[in-house]
Amino acid sequence: MNAVPMRFSWARVGALFQKELRDFRRNRFVVLTMAFLPLLFIILPLVQLLVVPASADNPKLDAQVGLALLYMLLIPAFVPSTLSAYSVVGEREQGTLEPILITPIRREEFLVGKALAVLVPTLVVAYTIFGIFLAVVAVFAHPANASAVFAGSHVLVQLVFTPLLAGWSIWAGIAISTRSTDIRAAQQLSVLVSLPPLAVVALVQFGVIAPSLLLALGLAVLLLAIDLVAWRLVAALFDRERLLTGRHG
């Protein structure tokens, strides 16, 4: 008699999600990555925007604004890439992966739980830092410089592309982590593969590619589709037998 396949369970995903958050709070590397890496990306662009002369010509001011906003997009690209690259190979090195994989959790549930545990804190940190950035610019920057930051679709691009860039970085990082045997190599490679979509968004922010609502929507839909397909591809790459025994299933 054939066994009835288990249905996807959000309860199992939620249990793994909570377990991951508890582990993050006890992991010094994760705490330092979440706390200090975003600070590096906000200090420099804020200083540059506050000191740039209000009389700067438009191209120079636009370039400064584009650079500052690019720093904000580095947070959802880099922070999740390092954490997701750690998610499988890191647990495997610590010997905490096997107790999870011998449970009835499906690989899709395992991957979604891992991805959400990285995505949620990343979005909290990225949006909080961006909110602080906007508040400081609005209060302390010259009105002309502040207007340049809030002009056009700058804020909308940041809000829309933050979760989409994070999603790409997470799935790429988990894919690398499932196949890697070294944490550092996985993290370095994960950071590299997070750059291509960020580069396209940067070209829009700097005006190299003429920004428009249609272009922004097209890029957003494309990145969303890639994020959704990436989940299935990573699930296909996930080999529970190899992770448990070192042999292909």
UniProtKB/TrEMBL annotation:
Cellular component, GO annotation: plasma membrane
Keyword Cell division assigned: no
Entry keyword tRNA processing: no
One MF term in the entry's GO annotations: ABC-type transporter activity
Keywords: Membrane, Transmembrane, Transmembrane helix
Transmembrane feature ranges: 29-56, 68-89, 110-143, 155-177, 189-208, 214-238
Record's protein name: ABC-2 type transport system permease protein
